[in-house]
UniProtKB/TrEMBL annotation, chain A:
It is a multi-pass membrane protein. This is Unannotated protein. The keyword Cell membrane applies. It comes from freshwater metagenome. It is found in: Cell membrane.
TrEMBL record, chain B:
PANTHER family: AMINO ACID ABC TRANSPORTER ATP-BINDING PROTEIN, CONSERVED COMPONENT OF ABC TRANSPORTER FOR NATURAL AMINO ACIDS-RELATED. One of its GO terms (molecular function) is ATP hydrolysis activity. This is Unannotated protein. Signal peptide: none annotated. GO terms for cellular component: plasma membrane. Keywords: ATP-binding, Nucleotide-binding, Transport. GO terms for biological process: D-alanine transmembrane transport; L-alanine transport; L-isoleucine import across plasma membrane; L-valine import across plasma membrane. Residues 7-254 form the ABC transporter domain.
């Protein structure tokens, strides 16, 4: 165990070295660094082919790009959304799968079950409906705190699943099939065999979500959320309309969850209530906590780990869940605040210290 | 100090089950004064604060602020109408930086919400800059600007106390309620704080001050109100209150043979 710790420390100092080097680079160098990273992400489906390290990321038994889209992208999106609710605003939501299901079902209903709208039209509707459901659920329940809120949301997730299972209008336990697919863009065909276009689409959605959430985090809204998480009463006494901002956090989290659901439905083409079990809510939450609650890069990393690790160890068959569980326990023991814990944001610090001149964001 | 009543705490009774924390207490605060609120432990001083700032709904009585009834307003609405407070036990947003803590207060006067923040509208950016500039200004006023970008929890105790005052001032209050701001300070720090409170008053704020330390209260208060067992037992100039036999009895007790 101590060897493992030494290894980790070495890795960490290497990481810190890279970070220091990164900070010393010029703006152009950094921008090109970002561009390269983005390019590398879009090329991720070919990572397993990289000689030497390809085997490390490869997922035996399942096509790597399938894992990338159906697992990693979905979990990253969901973790980003849930991170707003749990990590920023500090509202424990154990029924997040409910919003994910709403997003998927809206697309299912609008493109196959009761209408035949194109996927691209159903997508924004799915996001809006999920958001609305978030508001409807949030309005009565956000008066509760802590454990009570957790229990109510837990119930919500189950209500959605069981309703879907029993409503013929939603296909009952047969589910909904022949769900519409995203429209082809030039040579990019969203078919059944090649998952890569879906991955690229999903990755683009992730970037979009990150961009939006970053803007919210770095604003009055983000400060209100953090203040609520830190001390709800004090926040309200400092003039924060806590209910309104909690509801916004819920609605935005729900919207991102719905987006993930809509993307999922478009890819797999078939959904049924069994796709949305309670266990998924727990895994979503695990992704956020494992990665680093309240820190977007952390949530993303958590989503990647929770999605990819079980697939990486698929040839352990039954024991893979055990391996996964042990991995979770180890992370929580050695990194109790997650793999990338949130740090006090230094942005405001940078703005003053650079040359004493204040830069408007 | 003028004769204009800023806050009228009118005949307020506050009961918690069978316990009466405040019993028919009436206090008037005049614009521009420093009113000291004193009393032994458990006298109901902080309960008074909590009723004023909307933490508790009084069992009976009303709180009028600037001529309008604020008894039924929500807490954040009371803050927005111009009352700000600090806490007896420091309650900062500990994982946020000092300047962000103050910005939360400054945000009380801003309106840009989700859509504006997503689009980064011109007004949103102006508001952000205003909040930031005002917060840095207040940190400088409190003499803690050098640690503006440190997490609140990493600040020394004295800084945290002053940060609480800065955060409250950022909400642009007319009435600033300080709940034992000098608790845990040494004499030199208390002296500094006194000067700071006077400076704040001179900038046009009205100050309500809960304090245990008689030196602090008597030195800087324009008037003093004394509570004991949830009742107002004295009110007046510091000198008068100091010599009031009821006040002396409340603080020092009554000798057995005199009772």
């Amino acid at each position: 165990m101590s060897q493992l710790l030494i290894l980790w420390k070495r890795f960490y100092s290497l990481f810190a070295g890279v970070q220091a080097h990164w900070k010393s680079m010029s703006r152009v160098q950094r921008l090109s660094g970002y561009a390269l990273a983005v390019l590398a992400l879009y090329l991720a489906p070919w990572w397993p082919k990289i000689p030497g390290i390809g085997w490390l990321v490869n997922t035996p038994g399942t096509q790597f790009s399938t894992v990338l889209n159906d697992q990693v992208i979905i979990f990253v999106l969901v973790a980003l959304g849930l991170n707003v609710v749990v990590g920023l605003a500090g509202l424990l939501d154990l029924g997040y799968v409910g919003f994910y299901a709403v997003g998927a079902y809206v697309v299912g209903v609008l493109t196959s079950q009761h209408a035949s709208l194109p996927w691209i039209v159903a997508l924004p509707i799915a996001v809006l409906v999920s958001m609305l459901v978030g508001v409807i659920l949030g309005t009565p329940t956000l008066r509760l705190r802590g454990d009570y809120l957790a229990i109510v949301t837990l119930g919500f997730g189950e209500i959605i699943r069981i309703s879907a299972k029993n409503l013929d209008w939603l296909g009952a336990s047969r589910g909904i099939s022949d769900i519409g697919k995203p429209p082809s863009i030039g040579p990019l065909k969203f078919g059944v065999i090649d998952p890569k276009p879906y991955y690229w689409l999903g990755l683009t959605l992730v970037f979009l979500v990150v961009f939006c959430l970053y803007r919210l985090e770095e604003s009055r809204v983000g400060r209100a959320w953090t203040a609520i998480r830190e001390d709800e009463d004090a926040a309200e006494l400092m003039g924060v309309n806590t209910f309104k901002f909690k509801l916004w956090a819920f609605a935005i989290g729900a919207a991102v969850g719905g987006l993930a659901g809509a993307h999922y439905a478009g890819k797999v083409g078939f959904i049924s209530p069994d796709n949305f079990p309670l266990q998924l809510s727990i895994l979503f939450l695990a992704a956020v906590v494992l990665g680093g609650s309240g820190n977007m890069p952390g949530a993303i990393l958590g989503g990647i780990m929770v999605a990819w690790l079980p697939e990486r160890f698929r040839n352990f068959t039954d024991k893979r869940v055990l391996v996964f569980g042990i991995a979770l326990v180890l992370v929580m023991v050695f990194r109790p605040e997650g793999l990338l814990p949130r740090r006090v944001r230094t942005k405001t610090a940078m703005r003053t210290s650079s040359d004493g001149k204040e830069v408007a964001q | 100090m003028t004769n204009e009543v800023l806050l009228d705490f009118n005949n307020v009774t506050m009961q918690f089950g069978g316990v009466t924390a405040l019993s028919e207490v009436s206090v008037k605060i005049f614009r521009g004064e420093i009113l000291g609120l004193i009393g032994p432990n458990g006298a109901g001083k902080t309960t008074c604060f909590n009723v004023m700032t909307g933490v508790y709904q009084p069992t009976q009585g009303t709180v009028m602020f600037n001529g309008s009834d604020i008894t039924k307003l929500k807490r954040y609405e009371i803050t927005q109408s111009g009352i700000a407070r600090t806490f007896q036990n420091i309650r900062l947003f500990s994982e946020m930086t000092a300047v962000e803590n103050v910005m939360v207060g400054a945000d009380a006067r801003k309106t840009s919400s989700i859509p504006a923040s997503l689009l980064r509208t011109k007004r949103q950016r102006t508001e952000e800059k205003e909040s930031y500039d005002r917060s840095m200004e207040l940190l400088a006023l409190m003499g803690i600007a050098d640690r503006a970008s440190d997490a609140a929890r990493n600040l020394p105790y004295g800084y945290q106390r002053r940060l609480e005052i800065a955060r409250a001032l950022a909400t642009e209050p007319e009435l600033l309620c300080l709940d034992e701001p000098a608790a845990g300070f040494n004499p030199a720090e208390k002296q500094e704080l006194n000067e700071l409170i006077l400076k704040i008053r001179d900038q046009g704020y009205t100050v309500l001050l809960i304090e245990h330390d008689m030196n602090v209260v008597m030195k800087i208060s324009d008037r003093v109100t004394v509570l004991d067992f949830g009742r107002k037992i004295a009110e007046g100039l510091p000198q008068e209150v100091r010599e009031n036999p009821d006040v002396i009895a409340a603080y020092l007790g009554v000798p057995d043979d005199a009772a």
